[in-house]
Input
Amino acid sequence: DAEITQSPRHKITETGRQVTLACHQTWNHNNMFWYRQDLGHGLRLIHYSYGVHDTNKGEVSDGYSVSRSNTEDLPLTLESAASSQTSVYFCASSDGAVLDTQYFGPGTRLTVL
Amino acid sequence: GDSVTQMEGPVTLSEEACLTINCTYTATGYPSLFWYVQYPGEGLQLLLKATKADDKGSNKGFEATYRKETTSFHLEKGSVQVSDSAVYFCALSDSRGVGGSYIPTFGRGTSLIVHP
Output
């Protein structure tokens, strides 16, 4: 069965360190998204990609970067982790068809000390 | 721009009670509407969807009707169970990206707690 996975599921890091969160999907979807989820803010879009070598900034992209070298993967990098980036991160994908249902990964809980 | 407003929670109910979670939207185009559910410790998953006015989406006993005249998509269930305890997100999609791709707009989520 097709799926979308994230790793690690939990991560603790220190301020200033570079961190990369992995996202891998086997749906063969063109569109991939990264969100963060915080109490009181719901889901906020960080970056998204419409296909290989395409990346776009979302509403809270500062301090984050992504790259898309193949269809299956969209890793999210925190260049220099800050305590404000402590959050739960979700990756999602969609196939760009009319209904555009999103398929979400299980999430990564990141703590920046 | 597009926006989704849903009632704040938590909504606390006893088992077998009726549920309504309100959702209203603003959109420049003619969007598709969705309800997603997030169970504790998991990612969001699609609960139901509707693509045009007066369409009714349904799944697992939940229903929502696309009301264009009131720009609403309220989620309803006649008899909730403890296992329905989760966070529910209303969302819309409006094709406005390259090649018709889109960026979804989510509400902030409504927590539902069902007691035995």
Q: What stands out?
A: Residues 84 and 112 of chain A are 8 Å apart (CA to CA). Chain A has a mean pLDDT of 93.
